[in-house]
Amino acid sequence: MKRRILVPLAAVCAVLAVTTSAGADTGTAAAGAGAGAGAGAPNDGWEPAPSPSWSHPAGARCDFAVQGSPVVDEVVRRTLATYEDGTKVVEYKGDLVVRVVNSATGASYDADASGRAVVEIRPDRSQSWYVVGPILAGFGEGGGNVPRGLYTVDGAYTLTVSPTGYKTLTQLHGSTESLCEKVG
């Protein structure tokens, strides 16, 4: 089966507007895919998508070791499409606040990552994220078009991840905020 995916931000916003009118909250994306309940079910296919705690050694994202843990995690996901080649299109939403901590000093910041996203996850491990609102994004040295760091990215934007893990952030409107600076 040949397919062509053109997902301009306007189309994503239209999808999000339709689901938002059904009473949905804003949310965030987490890499994964789920098999939700069938159409017409009370939850419309949404299932929990818990965000794990994480840590990075000094130099990986910030000049110091940094860790994060969700303090509010109401993220849910639903699979919108699954293609013959194994590609899945998954929507994420829900409140997410992550406490980012400088492991050496204990300085912390509660980062809002409650953006809403539609994520195309391919069998080769590449991904395309179409996002409105804030998420947390980490970039390693030489690992993307954004300098090494840990950021809150907000606004309307796309984030593509190559099969090798290289990340390309394209902001249509919005901002990035360095969390390394917040807790440094």
Automatic annotation (TrEMBL):
Keywords: Signal. The keyword Signal applies. It comes from the Bacteria. Residues 1-24 form the signal peptide. Residues 30-58 are annotated as: Disordered. This is Secreted protein. It comes from Streptomyces viridochromogenes.
